[in-house]
Amino acid sequence: MKPETLVMLVVEDNPGDVLLLAEAIEFAAIDARMHVVENGEEAMDFLGRRGSHAEAPRPGLIVLDLNLPLKGGWEVLAELRADPGLRDIPVAILTSSRTDAGICDGDTSGRCRYFVKTGDFKKLVGIVRQLERFAR
Question: Whole-prediction pTM value?
């Protein structure tokens, strides 16, 4: 039986990083549908199905950059943890900073993982495969 398509909400303001992620998903042959938002406020609108995101699907995985405009990744993560309707969605922090690696330390549910962005496509494909296992 084929597993269900993974619905991913990618919260990333860098179009180049989004493109690389999409290419890595395709290369890894992962059955995923990406929805991309560029800032934390739009992420919360998507998750709350507000405004232009009224018909948004519930993601099976949130891929979250920490360095975002309007509302940062730290704030988004705090709101997710505080919302009983959203806290069970797995969150993969994918950011360029190695200094924030402890962001998932307070998560006792096992629903938060931290990954450092890489320019090495082969390593990115490996991260994408880990993301899929984490989400399933």
Answer: 0.91
